[in-house]
Amino acid sequence: MTSRATPDWREVLTAPAPAGAVPGLALGVELRQRVRRAESRWAPTRVETATARGLHHSSDDLSLALRPLERSVRGWIKAQVSWDALRRPGHRYDPAQGRWFVELYSIARDARTLGTMPDGSEWLTLDDVESHLLWAHLAAAQTLGIPLTAPKPHQTVALAREAAVSLHAERNGHGLAVAAQVMIDGAPVDAGTVRTIGHVGLYRFDAVGERIAVTLAPAAVPDAAHALLQSRSPVIVPAAEADEFLRDHLPRLTRQTPVSLGRGIHPPPALPPRLEVAVRFQPADRVEVALTWRYAGAPPVPYGSPASADRDAAFEQQLQARVEAAWRSAGDLPFTPAGSFTGADAAEFAAAVLPALERIEGVHSDVTGIRRTYRELTGIPEITVTTVESTDADWFDLGILVTIDGRRIPFTPLLTALTRRRRKLLLSDGGYFSLAHPALDRLRELLEEAAELDEWDTGPRISRYQTALWSDFEDLADQAQPAVAWRATVEALRETTTVPPTPVPAQLRAELRPYQQEGLDWLAFLWRQRLGGILADDMGLGKTLQTLALIAHTREAGEGRPFLVVAPTSVLATWRTEAERFAPDLVVRTIDASAVRRDVTVADLAAGADIVVTSYTLLRLGDQEYAAVEWAGLILDEAQFVKNPATKLHRAVKALHADVTFAITGTPLENTLTELWALLSLTAPGLFPSARQFRQEYVGPIEQGKTPENAEGAPYRARRLERLRRRIRPFLLRRTKDLVAGDLPPKQEQQLWVTLSDEHRALYDTVLQRERQKVLGLLDDLDRQRFIVFRSLTLLRMLSLAPALIDGRHTRLGSSKLDALLEHLTELAAEGHRALVFSQFTSFLQLAARRLDAAGIAYAWLDGSTRRREEVISAFRDGDAPVFLISLKAGGFGLTLTEADYVFLLDPWWNPAAESQAVDRTHRIGQTRPVNVYRMIAEGTIEEKVMALQQRKARLFQAVMDDDDLFSQALTADDIRGLFDV
User: Fold this and answer.
1) Residue 468 pLDDT greater than 60, yes or no
2) Which fold has domain 747-979?
């Protein structure tokens, strides 16, 4: 590759020396005149240099022309210089001066003005130039050494600083004479000797003797002054039209340029412009609209057109702001100064927008056509949803009735408007309403979803298996068919004042305690009325026995259909054994396999059975099979499993056909009031039929109290809480151990504080600082970052237990908590006591098992992976192992372990209900010894914060279910921030 030679720096950085003298340039400015040399008017004319004699003869057909000149020994001459020569590269003139001439040519060169003069010379005329750049460019000529000069000796040229043009009106014998007045550099001049340079300047010619002096000056020349200067004589307004001129036209002229009035002229007050709204009503609900500005004596100006000097811009802006604000405040119709509206938009314009505009001073409406009367419906849409049996057994016809301001909205046009996503709907009687309401938005979504599932040939339909979709419709509606039917049943009980006693069924092999008898009375009463409810007794008070007593009672009352019991998988055997123990005459059939793994159907198993027991998992997997059976009643054991209405399991339960539904759980709410609503929506569907309204009326005021009126302890919140309690009281029965089970032995609970070793503490503090920084940066978007946040919290909880749980390299650090546990278990085993040991983490239980093995202490093990659960439980009950290691999730329900009298909770959990269930495995009916509960807490760790959060969350349960009037929020970002407080 050939390298390029490096040029000498002088060639690049220094200007070349001139080869010779560079000719100087000047701008030639010449006043020219069109003349005719022959007497005949048909004789040709030509443009020549104007002379004083020619000006005295006639001052018409003048023009001001420019051309470049070159210096010579004889002065400034044409020589070889021209516009074209200066535009060619490499000319022999000074480059800076050449560029100046080229730029001047560009400024003056215009489609209207450029061209050679008729005599063929290269003159550039200035008379029609409209660019304001001209004057700054001419002023810059002096700095470049370019003089302005006249080519002919009898003319001179000068550049003035400024000029001003005004108008003057004077009375004369014919009316009003309106003439132009000109000032150049502050001195008045004869307007007859002035010509205009477009609307941006003017030039004056003054003939004295044989000489002519030409003066150029920048000036703003409005249209009226431009016309008067070109006419070269005053304009006469006849006397009969003088008032019109003064009233209608003088204000517009005054806005363009100053106008002085002669003696005796007194103009009337000027009329302001007005905004005219031309409205034309046409058939088929169509309206045409046009907004124009109206100035007296002037043609209409379209709204929004660029401002001009003859208009009152300030007035227009003020009125325009008021008009557009009134338009937008009248509705959501987009502002349109010229166009048309149809249908509901036309109705909104006529009923709301046009009256708002007509109320504005300065706005005039011009209405043509027949103005129809429209009325806006502004009420909240009330939606009623019903289902009616259709000829197809698997489908219902879906009835949707929308009422606004007492007006029933026809469904067909509403459906069309919603599916086409229109903003408003116009009714045949002139009523119209907005479709932007949230309820109608949700209705549109649901209708579109339902339409995708069927063609709707004869109207909207919904499958009996579309329980999720029906739930959405029910939530949307102010009234829904199931809720109406349920409320009708409740209304029938208006005269009932007491719950009658129910005899203990003869086939029940148990002596009911007084509170259990009351429970049977309550359950039987609701069953007779075909109402459901929630049996929310404390753990260990015999909820299963009370439910079996109810089923036995229904048998004696003649009910032949089976009851379906749905429970966690680990509890299925409990129902079978409890039934065998207390009601052996009842036929109980357990379903413990899915349809593909059994030879018999659910319907076949239900035939001839009193109780069918299945798990939540199997119900979810075979929901249609269970929904095909008519059940006498539905029992939801450990009903907290269906506390989330968004799950398929909850929808499967709701789709079952049962006369009544009873939820059996000691914890009807664990974290939030919406969990209570989910259970009530199954057991008492008409009590709070709309989840949306429940959130508005109860969850917001009670659970999310952030304002003074609904903060904890505020009267408003207390009233809402009392209203909630009052409404749920007939359908929720809850008895605590302290209240009804006085024969239970005492339960002692205490906290065992464990101090971390120095090395363990140093490691924990290091990880804490790292995770704190990460988590606090994510809490502003907790919903999206929830997994990462809880992952960090779990890491810290595990590290509080044993460093080896997060990294096997830390095994040597041991676990202070396990040291303390082993010390207690060794002592208890020696004294003949037995203990349940719970942990959230099976990995920590494994570490505990290794320590027990090393110490020679026997134990039993139960976690979620245990296959022979009943065998393991029986082995502990019948054996003599002093310790039972249980994962909190696997042992939280379905266990009766009264053989143990000590409980150790190795790690606190956010939800106090989960811990209470674990403790109640042993502190329940049948226990004869005092129960001691130890919560082991690592001092100075996140476990302390968890305990504080437990107390706050426990107040939620107490505030609604018990007598305590305190309350706390659910787990929020603020709660998590508190976990990291030092």
Assistant:
1) no
2) Rossmann fold (3.40.50)
